[in-house]
Specification:
The chain has a 6-stranded mixed sheet, sandwiched between helices. Strands 1, 2, 4, 5 and 6 form a 5-stranded antiparallel sheet that branches. The protein is globular. It is built from 10 helices and 11 strands. The chain is an alpha/beta fold. The longest helix is centred in the last third of the chain and has 16 residues. Helix 3 runs parallel beside helix 6. The chain binds adenosine-5'-triphosphate. Adenosine-5'-triphosphate binds next to strand 2 and helix 1.
Length: 238
């Protein structure tokens, strides 16, 4: 068995009568960057929430390394090396940037290692260091997105789940987010990136799958998918 591999098999999510995710299976290897693209309502967010234990789910298997995530409570998933950047950022607007970051380290003791992580996060997003005493609610959308990613990194995850980090951002800020994802990859983090922005996803990932109506409709390398005529028409608008 490979260490730190995320294995998802037969994952389904039902909200009452709504079948949001239908028997989805995929893997994310150590240091691998996998994308999930799809339209509104395709089931992407529900897939990430299900991995974090935040919505009722059924599955044949959800395993991370040797850990059976079906048996791990939502509040403990982060302790097993998985970080989560939710859709819509959800930073704490009334707390300073620094406090938001420190809250991300809630599963760790405050020591030289955590301080090192804080330095790495500020190195990745220098604006967070410059604004550390400002209230998070006073930041721009792009800065809040960086804070949301930085906060997730404070738990020192090996796998980071990101839900639409480009949402509402200008092309320049999307470039900044892409650069940050590239650096996370180079630092050895595995990434699972959910996006409606297929172009960004193809640039940021090696492997992708397309979700439609809760199912995996297509899968392949990002390069292959970006050349697929159907993907080009529906998801790239070409
Ligand atoms: P988006 O890009 O808009 O976030 P998505 O691909 O992430 O879309 P989901 O948010 O996972 O899709 O939603 C999948 C389906 O589940 C949709 O039909 C949605 O309306 C439904 N759904 C999501 N959350 C709930 C909920 N809490 N209760 C009932 N239905 C829900």
């Amino acid at each position: 068995m490979t260490t730190d591999e995320l294995v998802v098999s037969g994952l389904s999510v039902n909200y009452g009568g709504v079948r949001a995710v239908r028997s989805v299976s995929f893997t994310v290897g150590p240091g691998q960057c996998v994308g999930i693209i799809g339209a509104n309502g395709a089931g992407k967010t529900s897939t990430l929430k299900a991995l974090m234990g935040l919505v009722p789910r059924t599955a044949t298997e959800i395993r991370y390394g040797d850990r059976d995530l079906m048996k791990v409570k939502a509040r403990d998933v982060v302790r097993h090396g998985i970080g989560y950047v939710p859709e819509g950022r959800h930073v704490f607007p009334g707390l300073t940037v620094e406090k938001n970051l420190l809250l991300g380290a809630y599963v760790r003791k405050w020591n030289s290692e955590t301080r090192k992580t804080l330095r790495e996060v500020v190195d990745l997003f220098p604006v967070l260091g410059e604004m550390r005493h400002r209230l998070a609610g006073a930041l721009s959308g792009g800065q809040q997105q960086m804070l949301a990613v930085g906060r997730a990194l404070m738990s020192n995850p090996r796998l980071v789940l990101l839900d639409e980090p480009s949402m509402g951002l200008s092309p320049k800020l999307i470039e900044d987010i892409l650069a940050a994802l590239q650096r996370l990859r180079e630092a050895g983090h595995a990434l699972l990136l959910v996006e409606q922005n297929a172009k960004l996803t193809f640039e940021a990932t090696k492997t992708c799958f397309v979700m439609e109506n809760g199912e995996v409709a297509m899968t392949g390398t990002s390069e292959e998918l970006s050349r697929d005529p159907r993907v080009r028409q529906i998801y790239l608008g070409l």
